[in-house]
Amino acid sequence: MPVSLIRRIASPKKALTTAAVAAATAGIALTSAPAQAATHASGPDAKAIAHQMIPDAAQFNAFSRIVEHESGWNPHATNASSGAYGLVQALPASKMSSAGADWKTNPKTQIKWGLDYMNSRYGSPAKAWSFWQSHGWY
């Protein structure tokens, strides 16, 4: 599959689905990358970490909805056209380094940065979700 086709797809989930369908059509099996260290969680683990970090149900639900739309809870999600990265699709991605040096691989660091961003820019995850609903981005 040409790289340019994947770059035109804005959603990481769509890109992955497109790549998987193309690979299956070509008879190629896709394999996952080698497992990271235990501190580098997967999507379901990231959601559990976020739930621990955001005890308020309404705020967690708002944060979760944003992350679901932005990255599908994939801490390695990358938007090829913009360079946005991670659970909360930070742009530029390197901004998340302010929350920790392990921002590229650690969902907890990405969640911390995302919460700080939502609280400072919008006042709360719920207010960020409200903005997201009316604009399709935050």
TrEMBL record:
Gene3D superfamilies: 1.10.530.10. The keyword rRNA-binding does not apply. Residues 63-126 form the Transglycosylase SLT domain. The keyword Kinase does not apply. Pfam families: SLT. InterPro entries: Lysozyme-like_dom_sf, Transglycosylase_SLT_dom_1. It comes from the Bacteria. Residues 1-37 form the signal peptide. Keywords: Signal. This is Transglycosylase SLT domain-containing protein. It comes from Streptomyces spiralis.
